[in-house]
Amino acid sequence: MTDIVVLGSTNMDLVTYVEKAPQRGETVTGREFRTIPGGKGANQATAAARAGGDVLMIGAVGNDAYGAQLRSALEHSGVDTDDLRTVEGPSGTAHIVVDDEGGNAIVVIPGANATLDHLSPGDEGVIADADTLLLQLEIPLPAVLAGARAARRHGVRTVLTPSPARPLPDELLGAIDLIVPNEHEAATLTGRTDPREAAGVLLDLVPEVVVTLGASGSLYAARGAEPLTVPALEVTAVDSTGAGDTFVGALAVALGEGRPMPDALAWASCAAALSVQREGATVSMPYRPEIDERYAS
Ligand code: ATP
């Protein structure tokens, strides 16, 4: 029995650090280049495994060098990769240019992630065995929908991070138990820029909503209950990339352990706050003892 199955993307982030990003036709000398395992699916799997969950990832990597590195990075954090397929062709990549003012420009090439447009035989059984299915939108929508439907058939809790932001069919939202957009994603889904109003609209289709608000924390809303605001921890943020995925991974672990939502949200905020204090998405994700220690203090 697995606690958490993640159905989603794996990308190698190719990150260039430069004083000022080049304009079209311009060549500049950068300061540093790093390859960092990423992709929202792999990020959430990594965060949940480090937070103490028993986690399995359904996804696809290419048969290139990045594919092997992405697989071993997941395994290193304790994620079961038996259902991570290796397909012909390149792995997904995200080409990221970070300038000295913290601004970034990103080109994502889906690569192997684009082959995940359906569930494979056996995936439904893997999902049925879990408590929670984590979904995001970096793989083709038909697979996300198939995963949500499979989870619903087997009474598995579904948690959707609607990123990258895009309008979604009611059929998908209707198969989700908890949706966790950031402010921008909540606005894209509902047309409302006020997070409370956006959460109210989402509650028509999804029973529970958490809107993450960056350094302002998060807002929880459920049908028939007063919304709850959970503050973020006051920390010096170095790099907030992956904060949302760390938050969702830890939240899924806490809810799977039967902790009440306010407690689970407070614990997930500790995990996310720890991750923003260090550079890099997956590399900055905290392990359970560190989260517990921060929570206790
Ligand atoms: P990303 O796309 O960078 O992964 P996101 O936009 O999905 O992030 P955010 O709303 O930025 O998600 O952050 C998720 C959670 O992380 C917040 O609800 C908060 O608990 C925590 N967090 C984010 N930024 C900070 C910060 N500067 N200080 C403390 N906690 C933070």
TrEMBL record:
Binding positions (ATP): 182, 212-217, 244-245
Regulation: Activated by a monovalent cation that binds near, but not in, the active site. The most likely occupant of the site in vivo is potassium. Ion binding induces a conformational change that may alter substrate affinity.
Main location: cytoplasm
Names of required cofactors: Mg(2+)
Cofactor note: Requires a divalent cation, most likely magnesium in vivo, as an electrophilic catalyst to aid phosphoryl group transfer. It is the chelate of the metal and the nucleotide that is the actual substrate.
Top-rank taxon: Bacteria
Record's catalysed reaction(s): D-ribose + ATP = D-ribose 5-phosphate + ADP + H(+)
Molecular-function GO terms, alphabetical: ribokinase activity
Name of a matching Pfam family: PfkB
InterPro entries: Carboh/pur_kinase_PfkB_CS, PfkB_dom, Ribo/fructo_kinase, Ribokinase, Ribokinase-like
Record note on quaternary structure: Homodimer.
Record-given protein name: Ribokinase
Name of the gene encoding the protein in the UniProt record: rbsK
